[in-house]
Structure formats: structure tokens, C-alpha cells
Amino acid sequence: MKSGNQRGFTVIELLVVIVVVVMICFAGILALAVSSGNFWYTEDGVLRSLKARDMVSQNATILETRRHVFDYTDIYVYEPSTDEKLVFYLDSDILFDYDFSRNK
Fold it and tell me: Which is it for strands 73-79 and 84-92: parallel, antiparallel or unpaired?
């Protein structure tokens, strides 16, 4: 007499396969979110890029950054030549490509 299920998966095997598939899907979604989110910048790199694009003077300093993963990151810069606080919106990616705008 044979034991086991001759026609398909047992319940345990099916549950293991489902759990593995779900884990792989979540890992892919997480990898996509991390690679395209606004995690990828440094304050020094942002300030150098702003200065290189002549968006701020050479004496400007970063006051604050507000990091948003799926939205533009807010960069607050103090401009001493005009004595004002400027706001730039940053979109970055895993290759440290910086795209700035003044409007969201």
C-alpha cells in the first residue's frame, strides 16, 4: 500500500511554495523601491552639484534636508549673498544622478 498524495502537492509543499513566491515578489518590489527612491544623495554632493550648475553662490550652505522616499526631497539652502533661504526639490537615483527644481 502506497502512502502520500499521488495526484499533486501536499498542503505543506503548497504552503512552502506560496511562501517562497511571496518572499521573492516582496524582495523584487523592495529592490525596485530602494533603487529608485530618494535615498541616494549626500549633502556635500548636492551642494557641489548646485554650485556647479550656478544655482547658488560658492558661499552657500545647506541648512536642512527633508528626505522623502517616493516624493521629491526638500533641500533648504542659505544664500549669504542675498541673505535668503532657498528651497530646492531633489530627485535622485541609485547612480547619484541629481535633478533639481524650484517647483514640485
Answer: antiparallel
Residue 62, phi then psi, degrees to nearest 5: -85, 125
- Domain ranges for the chain, please list them: 43-101
Distance CA(91)–CA(102), nearest Å, equals 12
Strand residue runs (E) in the chain = 61-66, 73-79, 84-92, 98-101
The model carries a pTM of 0.65
pLDDT in tens, 4-62: 656 777 888 889 999 999 999 999 888 877 776 677 788 898 999 999 999 999 999 99
